[in-house]
Design a protein that fits this description.
Chain lengths: 375, 127
């Protein structure tokens, strides 16, 4: 089992640990909903070092990335990042990734924990297939610790840590800052839908910075947050989780993520299959749904339209902010229209569900939180 | 966190007996293992239930788990407050988080359930 550099710190905070993709990670500290609320209302600090961090550098880093990822990496300026996917030749998703351009020929590819080794292997393989010598591919996952500081107070807290203003750091931008006498990469990215940052730190500095953030954050209501809160936050935003909405057998077209596929950038792995599917139309589509009666949908449950099975739930939970069951599901395209009524089979009970367009949660609805969840 | 005046079932439900009536709920251990409880499907009032039978579901932010009745009988009433405040199951599992009251069909069944000491020993095997 892999442990992050902060393993002992999590234990000291009495986190409930869980095995996630071969890593022992905090599932929760004070409680999933408590941590969730901290992130929506104030700030939460996550150890996300289980994610894979792959450095690609050199003259041919960009051409390789253009070949293996679906988005157009040539549009990234230095200090900019975007969401992208790595597809197989059938258009199935090998991984969904965040790509950061750190320098002129220097990129950081942030991949899912469960796919790190697979993607490293795939990059090496594709580099050989395309005969690209002029780049280095390094798995730096174990040398870099990755934190996510998320929530409306995240900027204030981080500015106190760095001693510099972060106002100029726009969405999906990243820059190096000096923290505690060392250099850290700070990116305005995240997985919660809130204002937030991710910090890429030298592993030997991580414990110090983790502790300092918790210390500074105390006055602002910052709480350490685990994978439970992270999953709830991402689901409310309709963000994908690899292994649920995305697999080697599902495509970005089916997932409704055509915006990350740059068909006009030149050839790339999966381009032909994806183009074909786009033209013909997929045989299933990802939808968001809200339950109209009380209940909690879960992965694997059957979705029905007028009593006839039409698809399957990929993620589901209870939204604290909406006070109802929400989920994502693949269904036949004919049943994927927003506003349509479907049913979810929850252990034999067919609960009515409404097809909605994610995100389930929008900032303007924030006020509901106080009414809905306090006892 | 294991009150002495209750009896316990292996699925972590508790029973408080008064005459021929029993109140049931889930133990502190159960609520802690489940994490934040967000929804409970309560048994139906008037239903006849048999010890060990599934009578409802408890949903937490982590998972779904089934609710079993430790005793046989008829459901007299349920704690409707849990519909709007399922968190009571976490906050006060032996008090305001009670789940249902059952008219016992066979009061001697209770003797087969664990005492607090036995349950505490049983918990040692669960972690």
């Amino acid at each position: 089992m892999n442990k992050t550099t902060l393993f002992d710190a999590h234990r000291a905070l009495q986190a409930k640990m869980v095995d996630f993709a071969g890593w022992s990670m905090p599932l929760q500290y004070s409680g999933v909903i408590d941590e969730y609320r901290a992130v929506r209302e104030r700030a939460g600090l996550f150890d996300v070092s289980h994610m894979g961090r792959i450095r690609l550098s050199g003259e041919e880093a960009l051409p390789l990335l253009q070949w293996v990822t679906t988005n157009d990496a040539s549009r990234l300026d230095e200090g900019q990042a975007h969401y992208s996917m790595v597809c197989n030749p059938n258009g199935g998703v090998k991984d969904d990734v965040f790509l950061y351009r750190l320098g002129a020929q220097d990129y950081l590819l942030c991949v899912n924990a469960s796919n790190r080794e697979k993607i490293m292997q795939w990059l090496e393989e594709q580099r050989q297939v395309t005969v690209r010598q002029k780049l280095t591919i390094i798995d730096s996952s174990f040398e870099i610790t990755q934190l996510a500081l998320q929530g409306p107070k995240s900027r204030t807290i981080l500015e106190r840590l760095t001693g510099s203003s972060l106002a100029a750091l726009g969405m999906r931008q990243c820059r190096k800052y000096s923290i505690a006498d060392s250099e850290a990469l700070i990116a305005r990215t995240g997985y919660t839908g809130e204002l937030g940052y991710e910090l890429y730190l030298a592993a030997d500095q991580a414990l110090l910075i983790w502790s300092q953030l918790l210390e500074i954050g105390r006055d602002h209501g910052l709480k350490p947050a685990g994978l439970g809160a992270r999953d709830l936050l991402r689901l409310e935003m309709g963000y994908f989780l690899y292994g649920h909405e995305l697999t080697e057998d599902t495509t970005p077209i089916e997932a409704g993520a055509e915006w990350v596929v740059a068909f006009n950038k030149g050839d790339f792995v999966g381009a032909q299959a994806l183009q074909q599917q786009r033209t013909r139309g997929p045989t299933r589509r990802l939808i968001g749904f809200e339950l109209l009666e009380k209940g909690v949908p879960r992965q694997g449950m059957t979705v029905l339209a007028n009593g006839v099975p039409t698809g399957i739930v990929t993620s589901g939970n209870f939204s604290p902010i909406l006070q109802k069951g929400i989920g994502l599901a693949y269904v036949a395209p004919v049943n994927a229209t927003v506003g349509m009524k479907l049913e979810i089979d929850i252990r034999g009970r067919h609960l009515p569900a409404l097809v909605v367009k994610p995100p389930f949660y929008r900032k303007s609805r924030n006020a509901v939180l106080d009414k809905g969840t306090r006892s | 966190m294991v009150p002495g005046d209750l009896r316990y079932h292996k699925e972590h439900e508790w029973v408080r007996v008064e005459g021929t009536r029993a109140t049931i709920g889930i133990s502190h251990f159960a609520q802690e293992a489940l994490g934040d409880i967000v929804f409970i499907e309560l048994p139906k009032v008037g239903a006849t239930v048999t010890a060990g039978q599934e009578i409802g579901e408890i949903e937490s932010t982590k998972a779904t788990s089934l609710l079993y009745t430790p005793v046989s009988g008829t459901i007299l009433c349920v704690n409707d407050e849990l519909h709007d405040h399922p968190e009571l199951l976490n906050q006060d599992p032996y008090g305001r988080g009670w789940i249902a009251e059952i008219e016992l069909a066979n009061p001697s069944e209770v003797d087969r359930l664990m005492t607090n000491t036995q349950y505490e020993e049983y918990l040692q095997t669960q972690t």
